[in-house]
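Researcher: I'd like a structural prediction for the single chain below. Treat it as a standalone chain; there are no partners to consider.
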Amino acid sequence: MPTPLHLHLRGKTVLLTGGTGFLGKVIVERLLRCAPDIGCIYLLIRTKREAAAPSIPALTRFETEVLTSPAFDALARAHGDRWAAFARDKIIPISGDVSEPRLGLEDGEYTVLTSRVDIIINGAASVVFDAPINDAFLHNTRSVQHVAEFARDCRHAVLMHVSTAFVAGQQTGRILETALARDILSGEIEAIEQIVSSVAAEAKAEQWDQRAIRARLVEAGMTRARSLGWHDSYTYTKALGEMMLARHRGDVPTTIVRPTIIESSLRDPAPGWLENLNVCDPLFVEFGRGRMPDFPVGLDTVYDMVPVDFVANAMLAMLPLVAESPAISYYAVGSGALNPLTGARIYEFAHDYFTRDPMLDRRGRAITMPQFTFPTHERFREMYAGEERRSTTMKRLLYLADLYETYMKVGTIFDTANTQRLLDDVDEPQRAGFDFDVRRLDWRSYIQDVHIPGLRRHVLREGARAAAEVRSHG
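Model: Treating it as a single chain, here is the predicted structure.
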């Protein structure tokens, strides 16, 4: 690392979008821990909810969703009684929305921020694979334009944008850390506008309710995405977001970070920490609960997972380098190129784990693990299509199989040479507490000792439920 991170960030002002999310919280924790002399972190927090729900002030969301998160427990212990004052001094929540022009900021706030911000980290996105196409486009594409325009208005800011490695779509082989091969943004903006307009006209003619409209927009988005070679609406609109960024950033120094499948932390802020069911987690849960008799897992497919703290650490390591090149720099953060994890190994590790430490059914009996036959996607649908109407569980499994179908078939390896060179520049003393070396990941230990226990503890909250049952029967 050319400049030690704590020196590079000393006195700097950061604007972070998406800071209330899973990765965002870890980025905040890492910034405060690794660079305690940072000037401040402006946390752009969306305060407008759905039409039927009241707005929640930015400060309230900060206090209830960020400051009290278990992601900051270790940091709070380290600071002791000074933690709350330190956090409130370093983190400034502001009400805004990247999906709106000028980030939804008041004129005075916009002027203050553009004059002060040194670093913009754009982590805001809709990470739902099958969101309605209008929502996915707004939050993953149009919002990038608004962030880029804000960056251009800043006096001296650099921009780091969080994308995804899967913008490569269903390409096979080794995917390099370079710009996307084609720019189809203009045509796709028109296509999406046409889709939304057509659905609106059809809905009016047929008198659809909001649920039917949403379902049609989801279907249309998925169809459009897959017809162009992407997996789903998420990867399609994230790819369009990269094109939007290239078009609107001007000469702002810019880095695009492309993580693969982000899962629970290996070490920081705590082993196994996560908030919700991420990409692979519904499959672990259904399997552990005995509700998955089989599944079309690609045995030889590389499932490129990476712990969330590795992504945050790599991003922080990139910060001193963002301004070095006038061109956009690209970094993929993943494990498949250096330490591949196949579907066969994931199944082996999960089956072994739940056999030794099973989940319990409603009567408190250990759930027995099934032996998969690993059918193809087509065969899996044939085997259980008849149960789709009778079983909510099987309907969900068939839905997950359809959603993940292209991910399980594609043979893609994401090259991480740029990120590896970045790691090589981190000296050994810093690397101990600032690690993102995927070569040293022991996948069996991570899945069995860290990830699944973390999933059960933090998301399924098994311990909390057990304690509640004891209290209720005490």
